[in-house]
Amino acid sequence: MAFNVMAAAAAAHGTAQQLYVHLDLSKLGWFEQFWAAWYIWIDNPVIATSLMSFLLHEAEGIYSRALPLERGTQR
């Protein structure tokens, strides 16, 4: 049931080509170009947002453990 609701929500929002048809990528900065290209490549805004959120969450979890942070006093 949840998948059908998500598919219906994605269909209601249209594809990335429909959403960004009037967007001129050459006027955007490099990060904005990457962001728009991501949504256009995935072609489904709901899945693109979910996937990007998951990937950023995982990258933050993996790489934040490598930072040398002070965590209290060491004995």
Fold and architecture overview:
The protein has 75 residues and is mainly α. The chain has one domain (2-62). Helix content is 65%, strand content 0%. It contains four helices and no strands. The chain has helices spanning 2-13, 16-19, 30-42, 45-64. Helix 3 packs across helix 4. It is flat and about 50 Å long. The protein starts with a helix and ends in an 11-residue tail after the last helix.
State the main characteristics.
mainly alpha, 75 residues, 65% helix, 4 helices
Q: Largest sheet at a glance?
A: none
Rounded radius of gyration (Å) = 18 Å
* Total of helices: 4
Mean model confidence by pLDDT: 78
Q: Tell me the helix content.
A: 55-70%
Instruction: Please identify the structural class as seen in this structure.
Output: mainly alpha
When the domains are counted, the total is 1
Cα(first) to Cα(last) distance is 54 Å
Based on the structure, what is the oligomeric state of the protein chains? single chain
- From the spread of the alpha carbons, the general shape counts as flat
Note the beta-strand portion: under 5%
How many β-strands, per DSSP?
Answer: 0
Low-confidence spans:
none
Question: H/E order of the elements?
Answer: HHHH
Q: Any chance you could write out the topology, listing elements then pairs?
A:
Blueprint: H1 2-13, H2 16-19, H3 30-42, H4 45-64
In short:
The chain has helices at 2-13, 16-19, 30-42, 45-64.
